[in-house]
Write the C-alpha cells for this entry.
Amino acid sequence: MKKILLSCVMILGSAYALAEEKILNLNLEAQSYTAEQVQLLKLQYERESLQYGGQYIRIGALDNMTGSGTVQMKPEFFYLTFELKTSASKFSVGSDNKAAKLKATEENTKVMTEFKDFLIKAAGVKEEDMETLQYGVVTNSGAVKDSADVVHQLKVKFDIRAGIGEVYKKIEPTDIKVLGEPLYGVSEKTRKASKLLAYDIAMKDALAQAEAIAKAGRFEIGDVRYVQENTARPLQYRQSQANVSFAVADAAMDRAIETEAPVPISVAQEMKVQMALVVSFDMVKKVK
C-alpha cells in the first residue's frame, strides 16, 4: 500500500512540475494573472497530464472534424398500391342512379374480396399487411350528366421474395390497376443495426482525418472532446431508383397467361443509411 501511495505522489509531483514548465514555456507573465488564475491553470494542466498518464501533455484542440458513414441495405419488403374503379354507368337502367351505385358497390366488393383472398392464400400476404387507403363513391361531373365510380384503393406489403408475377397475372383480366412505383423498406431491426454501423464508420472516418493532420503537424491525437451529429447533414435513409420495372407489357403478359409460364420479375434495389458526425479531439505531445 505504501508503494502505491508513493507512486501516486510521484505522479502528482511530476504532473505539477510539467504544469509549471508549460506555463513557463508559454511565456505567461506572472503579473498578468491573479494567483487564483495561475492556480487554476496549474490544476488544468495537472489534470491533463494525469489524463494521459503523465506521458503526454495537451497542446490544443482539433475541432470540427467531419466524418461520414454510409451503409448499404438490401430491401426486405416492398409496398404496392392497387386500385379498382367500378363505374355505376355499367349498371344504370333508366334514371335509377341509386340502384346502379349499389350494383357497382357490390361488384367492386366482390372483385376486391377475391383479390385479397388470393393475396393471402397464393402470394403469402398477411391480412395485417393490407391497408385500405380509400373506399367510397366518387361522383364525376360531366357535360351531359353526372356519373359515379366506386373506388377502392388497397396498399399491400409484400416480402421481397414474393412471386409478384403471379399477382400481375391475377389482376390482368380485371379492372384492378397498380398505382405508382413500388416502395421498398427494411425492418426496424435492420434499420437500427445499419444506423449503428454508419455511426462507427463516420467516427473512424473523422479519426483518420484527424490523424492525417496530426502527422503533418507533428503532434498526436488524444481523447475525444465532443462528438455530435452534423445538423447540416442529418441522418438520411435513401432509396436508389429501381433499375428493374414492375410494369409488364400486355403482349408479354398475355403470352404468359396462355402458356401458364411464370412472369419473370426480379428486384435489384439498394437502400442507404448515411450519417455525418462532427468530432473534436485533443491535440497532445509526448513529454520528453
In short: The chain has six helices and eight strands.
